[in-house]
Amino acid sequence: MEWVAIITAVAVLQCALFSFVVGRARVKYQIRAPAIQGHELFERCQRAHGNTVEQLALFLPGLWLFGWYLEPRAAAALGLLFVVGRQLYFNAYLEQPRQRGRGFLLGFLATLTLLLGGLGGALAQLIYR
């Protein structure tokens, strides 16, 4: 489960990095807290970070369930796809928001696979125990 723990830390650190990008944009575009609107580029940062926070709430349980009930290394590999997808999504959202779909899809499919696999593994434990 060490690889699952490492991917967890990487994903959370990535989200923290995204929050620093939001903070830097807040200063650059002079958006004073608690405002979340005011400049398009700031709003893009804010939305991309917010979406990442939302996706983490789905991803992290799926990662651990899959790792626990099925295969930790496969969970970590899927987790790495999530992290790469999130980075692609974030970068695309800042540059050209219409191009963010590929990164989103990569991360979401990894998350969906983790959640469904973890659920299946847990159900199999109940049924075949």
UniProtKB/TrEMBL annotation:
It comes from the Bacteria. The chain crosses the membrane at residues 6-27, 104-128. It is a multi-pass membrane protein. It is found in: Membrane. It holds the Pfam family MAPEG. Keywords: Membrane, Transmembrane, Transmembrane helix. One of its GO terms (molecular function) is glutathione peroxidase activity. One of its GO terms (biological process) is leukotriene metabolic process. GO terms for cellular component: membrane. Coiled coil: none annotated. InterPro entries: MAPEG, MAPEG-like_dom_sf, Membr-assoc_MAPEG. This is MAPEG family protein. It comes from Alloalcanivorax marinus.
